[in-house]
What we know:
It contains eight helices and six strands. The protein is α/β, with parallel strands linked by helices. The longest helix is centred in the middle third of the chain and has 13 residues, at 61-73.
Amino acid sequence: MTSKAFTPKSGHHAIDRFVLCPVLTDIPLLRKDFIISEFQIAEAAGHGADAILLIAAALSLDEITRLTDYAHSMNLEVLIELHSAEEMARFYPAVDMVGINNRNLSTFHTDPGLSLTLARMLPDNVVKIAESGLTSIDEVNRLRDAGYRGFLIGETFMRHTDPGRALSDFLNPPHTNL
């Protein structure tokens, strides 16, 4: 998150620190913000981003189309985030990736089954990313079988005192003898 509205303690626009990221890593960088304007996209490109996030709940299909086309003109990829079957009406086939956020924005309840349901509504060729509420490697494997290629898992690890250990345990669950 680079918007000053979401990083008020920093005292400045966190996008200023984003420029350091391409120097520190060679992995693709996503500007994960509430993108609503071409200015933010140009700013992301100018600061070294590789991709931007568009949140369907905050944008109309016309806005998603316009912003996606503009991002592509700036050589940025687009991840569109959907939260419901209703938001599928705002799916624009030119996006590069679709994130299905399993967290209901009204109740904050998570349902990993949403990713499985919406996967059937998306074209096979779109890169699918499951977001939020994933708590086991078995869930990840079911989603992978449904065509998902990326997984956003944060809370599962961050509520542990040792997130690195939690990740290791997640990837290598203990085997039980039956």
